Amino acid sequence: MIQWVFEGAKKAKLLERIIIATDNDRIFWTAEKIGAEVMMTSAEHLSGTERAAEVAAKVDAPIVINIQGDEPLVEGNMLDGLVGALQDESIPMATLMAKVYDFGQFEEGHIVKVISDRNGYALYFSRAPLPYQTVDFYYQHVGIYGYQRDFLLNFHRLDPSRLERIEKLEQLRVLENGLRIKMIEIPIATLSVDTPHDIIKVENFLKKRNDE
Fold first, then answer.
1. Mean pLDDT on 118-128
2. Distances (CA, A) of 176 to 130, 179, 181
3. Backbone angles phi, psi at 136, to 5 degrees
4. Total domain count, the chain
5. SS3 158
6. Is residue 203 in a domain?
7. Does a structural domain hold residue 136?
8. Cα separation, 112 vs 167, whole angstroms
C-alpha cells in the first residue's frame, strides 16, 4: 500500500520532493526498498499533522502536502490542485472533496462530510449526515491536506477546540479559530484503507481499472 501511495504521488507535476515520514522500522525499510526518500520521526506524535510538521521544520519549502499512507488511490492531479490553491498565500490550508450520489454510506461515521460556501471555502466538516435530509448529493471529504509551511509549523499552538473534540476532526480547529480552508473538488472520492475489508475493495478497484 505504501508503494501505491508513493507511485501516485510521483505523478504530481508540482511536487518538488516526496518524503515518507514514519516512526516504524518496517515502514522505513520498505520505503527505502522502493526507492523513496524516507525520514524517521518521533514516536510521540498524536496525529499525521504533527508528523508532517516535524518534517516541514527540516525542509525548506513554502508549501507542504500531507498525504496519508492509507490513501492508495491518490492521483497526482489531486495533489497539484492543492499546490495550485496554496499559491495564494492568504490561504493557510487546503483539502479535497468529492461529490457523492450514492447515499449508502451517508450516515456512516467514518465517512466525513463537508459543506462549503460559494467561494469554495469550508463551512463545516462532520461525521454526521451533512447537510440534513439532502436528496441529490453530498460532498465527501478526502483527507489529503496542503498547508502553508509557516501555518503548519504553528498549528499545534492552537488549542484543541470543542467541535474538534466532539467530531474527532482536527480540521475543525482551524475553522473554530476563524481561519479558512480552501476546498478543491475532485471527480471521485478515494478509497481510504481503515479496515482489512477496505483493502479488498481497493484491490478490486485497481484490478477493474487495470482491466479497462
1. 97
2. 18, 7, 11
3. -105, -55
4. 1
5. coil
6. no
7. yes
8. 10
One-letter amino acid at 156 equals H
Three cell numbers at 68? 496519508
Q: Please write the tens of the pLDDT for every residue from 135-191.
A: 999 999 999 999 999 999 999 889 999 999 999 999 999 999 999 999 999 998 876
Least confident interval from 67-71, 109-113, 137-141: 67-71
For the chain, how many helices (H) and strands (E)?
A: 8, 8
Q: Which amino acid is at 198?
A: D
Residue with cell 495533489: 79
pLDDT one-digit tens code per residue, 83-106: 999 999 999 999 999 999 999 999
In a domain, 210, yes or no: no
17 in any annotated domain: yes
Cell of 137: 448529493
Cell 465527501 identifies what position? 140
Q: What is the CATH number of the domain that holds 68?
A: 3.90.550.10
Residue 186: per-residue pLDDT: 95
The boundaries of the domain holding residue 144 are 2-193
